[in-house]
Write a structure and sequence with these properties.
This protein is mainly α. It has a domain of about 40 residues. The chain is about 50% helix and about 0% strand. It has 4 helices and no strands. The termini are far apart.
């Protein structure tokens, strides 16, 4: 439980406490803090490099890409113009 005897109870005491906090200097980070953070981020980024691209490391994207390639690389059976002549056309050409 909190110790209520430590807290100021009157308005002047609160005003005095707030005045002390207001005149306190702003907190500053330790020296070279940002350069250490930057160095750590660069080191982590270089350690995370993989041989596979990011989209291939996710199996759902790889499966979707495989299905797309498989569906688009058909044998042409759905096309309206055949690649080889029909038997009746071969007889007419002779």
């Amino acid at each position: 439980m909190a110790n209520s005897s430590v807290r100021p109870d009157s308005d002047p005491a609160w005003d005095d406490l707030l005045r002390q906090l207001r005149h306190r200097p702003a907190a500053q980070p330790r020296p070279f803090f940002y350069s250490r953070v930057q160095a750590r981020l660069v080191a982590k980024a270089s350690a995370d490099k993989n041989l596979l691209p990011g989209w291939l490391r996710r199996p759902a994207y790889a499966a979707l890409l495989g299905a797309l390639v498989f569906s688009l690389s058909g044998d042409g059976s759905g096309s309206t113009t055949p690649n080889h002549p029909l038997p009746q056309q071969q007889q007419l050409q002779r």
